[in-house]
Amino acid sequence: MLTAAAVMAPVPAAPKSSLEVLLETIKKRDERPKDEPPALPARPTCRGRLPRARRSPTPPRVHLEDGVAEGAAADTDKKPEAVPDTDKKPEAVNENKPEIEKENTPEVKKEIGGQEAKEGKAVNGRIFGAKRKLCSVEPVDESPYVENLHEERKDAMACKEPPSPYFSSARAKRNGKPVFTDSMDYVLQKKLRVWCSASDEKWELGQIESISGDDVEIHLVNGEVLTLPPERLLPANPDILDGVDDLIQMSYLNEPSVLYNLQYRYSRDLIYTKAGPVLIAINPLKEVPLYGKDFIRKYRQKLTNDPHVYAIADIAFNEMLRDGINQSIIISGESGAGKTETAKIAMQYLAALGGANGMESEVLQTNVILEALGNAKTSRNDNSSRFGKLTEMHFSETGKICGAKIQTFLLEKSRVVRRAPGERSYHIFYQLCSGASPLHRKKLLLRDANYYNYLKQSSCLRIDGVDDAKRFSSLLGALDIVQISGENQMELFSMLAVVLWLGNISFSVIDNENHVEVDSNEGLANAAKLLGCSVPQLVIALSTRKIQAGKENIVQRLTLTQAIDARDALAKSIYAHLFDWIVEQINHSLGTGRQRTRRSISILDIYGFESFNKNGFEQFCINYANERLQQHFNRHLFKLEQEEYLDDGIDWVSVEFVDNTDCLSLFEKKPLGLLSLLDEESTFPKATDLSFANKLKQHLSGNPGFKGEQDGAFKICHYAGEVSYDTTGFLEKNRDPLHTESIQLLFSCKSDLPKDFASVMIAYSQNKSSLSCHLLVDSQKQSVVNKFKAQLFKLMQQLENTSPHFIRCIQPNNKQRPRQFEHDLVLHQLKCCGVFEVVRISRAGYPTRMTHQQFAERYGFLLSHSVASQNPLSISVAVLQQFSIPPEMYQVGYTKLFLRTGQVAALENAKNRMLHGALRIQRNFRGLHTRREYYTLKKGATALQSFVRGEKARFRFDYLFKRWRAAVLIQKYTRRRLAATMFTDQLKNIVVLQSVMRGCLARKKFKCLQEEKESKVINSKVRRDVRNNISQVRLCHEMNGEYPRQPVVTELEGRVSKAEALLRDKEEENAMLKQQLEQYENKWSEYETKMKVMEEAWKKQLSSLQLSLVAAKKSLAADDMVTRAARTDTTPTHAQYDSEDTMSTGTHTPEGTELKYQNHNPEPRLATGNSDRRINAVNHLAKEFEDRRQVFDDDAGFLVAVKSGQIGSNMNPDDELRKLKDRFATWKKDYKSRLKETKVNLQKVGSHDEKSRKRWWGKKSSK
């Protein structure tokens, strides 16, 4: 088996690197047989340090000038173009090498160590213009990092300011001669752009024109020309690097370059910039188009890589799913830097990633509720968070939100009762007064905001551009979405109204000792009513105290100050417990049905560092919390990062940073820390704020981070600078007293919520298990700082169990105006956040690190040849050498490989290419194999399908054939039944019609015969009478012997002539009547033609009916012989029907009619009347025909209009057409019958006239 030295054999000509030296050391120390894999290097004897025998005296490429290390920092900032130029200066580099090699390294280390060990040495702090001192680290008695507590105590570093920006570019002197560093020397020689510091200490950009001696002539951008020494110059980045999105990409990392880059991006609304692993977010103070569904989709699909809050949230989400490790997003910054909005943006993105179940909307709406109850307007920020919030979002294994939990820290209760001028109380009070409905205002007895003393005392009731009524409507919607019931909402608003009315309760002094009594006013009555207690109970709780003297209780009245404090304490306590109660309700809603998963992302939105003209107890606690968060930031980005390098034994030059361990020690040390002294002083009943300040001066005057001042004030040197605190109210706020009477008042209330508050107050007491109820409320409660410290330590422990992601929010200016960039303010925040140190560590560090085993498993298959020694270290070395990765771009530790940024890309590309090649081979092979299997399966499946489909088709055919035969059989019988029924009905109708027509004709014929008979009888009687008269006359004459005289003959002749004249008149009249009759007959022929057309249509309908009957008969004949016989029997009837129909339609000739009525002999005197009746009947029929035709034409046009939708949209055209057809058929039938009657009447009248003429002429001729 080959040894590790054999692995290095391919490059014998190259000089030995630190890796080769390390491998040789391992080989010499390894005493195992050659056939066994070599053991890994042993742990160093000193934590984080290699043994001196195996460690080079100085880091590589570091030169010593007068005991000062140079070059290391310059190498990190050196541009790539500077390398060839430095190689051309052998005089400047090679001449110094002998001197450097001759220097005694232990003396240098001793000098550097002596500098670190000195105490009290002042350094230029540049923070708030104050000077800070290096102090030895005192041990911290308590720490949230329990596991690493002892190691941190050993390795805690003194608080130091970062090196001056001039150090990397300033001119150092040796033997009285100036010597430039590599970076600045290159810039001066090439006459590149530089930053110059003028007399006003402002950095300006310029171009080097010339160099004369120790002075450099600079041409500024504005056209001015300055001459400055090189000490006041800093190199500037080239134009191509203007506005880079990651500060690591900058060639030169200095203050003016970083500020210029941030301002360049800020002016273009690019508010996010990366600083290594930290995201810098500058508050735009306006709406910017960087959010929404489109941006969420881009970052979700990895379509963009620009720095953004979405990118940080996406990284946390993916790491949580990939590694199964809980994540945290820590958002920090000063007040007004935009932390709350940044937290909401991160939550929106996570809700979009884990949505689709409705839970995400509830999580997002919690921001609306908590902002209303926990945010307020301050002098710096219109929406400042006055509490800390940790939102823990839980996800399922598939990445869906399954629940959430919210933790809150240190609500600023004092803001409820008093605040600075120009500030507001919490938003919820103003929203309730402005947006409550009339019903709510009536139930809660609400007034306008300017009516309440708690709200109007700061003379600020509105915020420009904010509609409180609209915000209240959004709050109600959020409460509904989070499933806060209407009853709980009403309780919430009732308690808020109680707090407002408590502020309107006033007191009156009743004696010389300043004792007071409560004024009976509207505030007292309304507060008691809303609380659910009586007015006397509230008066007793606010104006008296019970003092136990022996076994007796003495009631003592309060002074004015005590009464006001009691009233304010009750209001603050109610609001604080109300805030905790609503958070508990929200957590209960968000936790309903939540799965127990170990995947979560926590978003910390906590108050930022605050420094006002007057800072009190709240700022003291807030800044303490920020100190602890800064320690967490330093721990993960500075300490743990560098400790990992040192622990694994690689060459590393530690990057110094501002460590706030001494400040935390000042706060937390026992028994002489700030928090311990505050708790101790709070236990003394007669202690005052001034005595507390004096105690601090007495015990902490020797601490360099503390400075006592007059009038009860003191200063603390924080990581962000010195802050002066006023001790006024410290003890009272730390005690947070609430007396027995107030708690008993809450217990006695009828409402459930005040009782719950009182129960919670008792639960916080220390001796609740052994004391009675009355003594319990008087027992010493846990102080505010102790409670807050416990919450803070718990928070730190939670964050330690997560993988952190940091977002630093920056406030661009103090005026809260967009597009204004104050360099000093931004630079101060960057220094406080440690951005420069983060970038330096990120640039000089090794962000990619893997254990030897992981590296070998991940990239070992890339080796083009096998390695004899199969241990992970040898495989890893072989891979690095195969890909020609320079030795300075990686280091090998005892357990891990450390690679600089971008070095894994080549390995990943090669791995991807090999994997893609393997995938292509596998794809082709699997494709061939799959195609063969597919063709085989396809052939078998086709055969199987053919049999199955054939069987199915045959079965289906048989089934359908049977259904068809059954359907045909059913249709046959059904049609036969329907046809028989229809035929029977039609036959009955025809028989009835024929019977009616025949009866009518028979009656008419009978009437004519009867009239003819009567006329014959009358004629015979007349003739008989005439004959009798004549015979009597003749007999009379014969009996008398007389004969008719001549006058009688003459008279008869006259009568005959008169009759002839009358006959001629009648003949002329008959001729005229015949002409009229011919005219009428012509008209009648026209009408008859028209009616024949209508009859033809009717006949077609009858013929179609007959055809259907014949078809029915034929179908019946095909199935049943009996039916054929029946059809044969019914044929005569059908023929009779046809004949009768023909007869009924009036097809008989007029001659035949005259023959039938030839015996009719009407009276001559009736001829004129009959002629008039015929004319009227024909005219009436003609007029009716024209009228009906016009009516039916109008109806048809109306139906066309209805069908086209022009009119009658609510009418059914089909129904109207059917009704029109029915009306037409009815009228046609009636018209035909009347037409037949008219024809018969005309024929009868004509036959009567003819017969009368013949009879008259017959009588005349007979005579």
TrEMBL record:
Residues 1129-1161 have a biased composition (Polar residues). Residues 1253-1263 have a biased composition (Basic residues). Residues 27-37, 75-117 have a biased composition (Basic and acidic residues). Residues 242-912 form the Myosin motor domain. Residues 189-238 form the Myosin N-terminal SH3-like domain. Residues 792-814 are annotated as: Actin-binding. CDD domains: MYSc_Myo8. Residues 1049-1097 form a coiled coil. ATP binds at residues 333-340. It holds the Pfam family SH3_VIII-1_N. Keywords: Actin-binding, ATP-binding, Calmodulin-binding, Coiled coil, Motor protein, Myosin, Nucleotide-binding, Repeat. GO terms for molecular function: actin filament binding; ATP binding; calmodulin binding; microfilament motor activity. The keyword Signal does not apply. GO terms for biological process: actin filament organization; actin filament-based movement. Residues 27-117, 1129-1170, 1241-1263 are annotated as: Disordered. GO terms for cellular component: cytoplasm; membrane; myosin complex. Belongs to the TRAFAC class myosin-kinesin ATPase superfamily. Myosin family. Plant myosin class VIII subfamily. This is Myosin-2. It comes from Aegilops tauschii subsp. strangulata (Goatgrass).
